[in-house]
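Quick one, tokens below. Sequence please?
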């Protein structure tokens, strides 16, 4: 049954959810019916091979189930492209909306008009960039695969070209991939929107008799100097999330790319946070002026910064270890 399972996987791997289950069920039933028509004395596995060779290239079978072909983004990825595009654009919309809503809580009524103008501008720019970068990413993936598969299409297809069905524990569920994209996009969109428009909101909120006082955690001008690096971290994080949806399983190549991206994200984040000038030098003094502490807040704050940096390093190491472990431990054999 190994070849049968590999063939079914090759046909259904680009589909998702209920559609994938229905196609798999129908395809298995059709293959079994064709096998039963082979009444010769050959072993069952030989009959399976004969039937699969009769069916031909699984990519062609998959195209048949799709019914139509698209051109800018090919049929192998068009459905996934539409799904990712909707998710990313909705996440960008949600992230910007949340960031602007938070900003509205701390401005005067006379500034609301300007904030709404900025909101529309940010939405237009964010959604447009989400569309552009998602389309470019899938266009590159599509052309890369078309180029790499071009030589194979010249040759006659055979069973040796079937991809190996992955171990269950190596499979990345559609829900996991989508959740990663949504969380990553929303969190980074909120953070970047605030950095670009109201970086002082990244701070500690202290209630007082005159309202809420915000003590910025970062030195605003220094933090904004890292905009390009922050955007790079954002794009790499989105790419990591998209790769989960693209591969849908942990392979060695996926794990290596994932690990390299994670390493760069961790390093770039540390470059920012290890810069002593990026932190608000008056943070402790301003907090002490508003709060009566019975502790040495300066020491506590230094330990908190060390803890933040340590957690970021640990998360990066764990992500790399888990990805490499799953790819080698559960790789197809």
């Amino acid at each position: 049954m190994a070849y049968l399972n590999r063939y079914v996987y090759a046909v259904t791997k680009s589909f998702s959810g209920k559609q994938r289950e229905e196609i798999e069920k129908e395809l298995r039933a059709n293959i079994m019916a064709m096998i039963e028509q082979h009444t010769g004395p050959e072993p069952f596995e030989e009959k399976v091979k004969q039937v699969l060779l009769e069916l031909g290239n699984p990519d062609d079978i998959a195209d048949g189930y799709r019914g139509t072909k698209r051109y800018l983004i090919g049929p192998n990825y068009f459905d996934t492209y539409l799904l990712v595009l909707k998710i990313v654009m909705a996440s960008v919309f949600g992230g910007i909306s949340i960031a602007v809503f938070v900003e509205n809580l701390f401005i005067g009524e006379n500034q609301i008009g300007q904030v709404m103008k900025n909101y529309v501008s940010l939405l237009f720019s964010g959604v447009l960039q989400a569309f552009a970068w998602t389309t470019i990413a899938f266009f590159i993936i599509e052309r890369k695969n078309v180029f790499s598969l071009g030589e194979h299409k010249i040759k006659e297809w055979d069973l040796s070209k079937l991809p190996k069905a992955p171990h269950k524990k190596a499979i990345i569920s559609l829900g996991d991939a989508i959740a990663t994209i949504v969380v990553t996009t929303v969190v980074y969109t909120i953070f970047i929107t605030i950095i670009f428009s109201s970086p002082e909101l990244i701070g500690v909120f202290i209630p007082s008799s005159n309202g809420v006082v915000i003590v910025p955690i970062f030195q605003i001008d220094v933090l904004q100097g890292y905009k390009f690096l922050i955007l790079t971290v954002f794009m790499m994080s989105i790419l990591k999330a998209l790769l989960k949806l693209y591969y849908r399983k942990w392979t060695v190549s996926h794990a290596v790319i994932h690990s390299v991206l994670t390493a760069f994200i961790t390093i770039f984040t540390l470059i920012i946070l290890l810069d002593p000038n990026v932190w608000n030098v008056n943070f402790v003094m301003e907090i002490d002026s508003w709060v009566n502490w019975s502790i040495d807040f300066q020491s506590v704050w230094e330990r908190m910064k060390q803890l933040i940096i340590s957690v970021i390093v640990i998360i990066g190491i764990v992500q790399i270890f888990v990805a490499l472990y799953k790819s080698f431990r559960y790789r197809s054999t």
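The mean pLDDT is 80. The CA atoms of residues 35 and 47 lie 6 Å apart.
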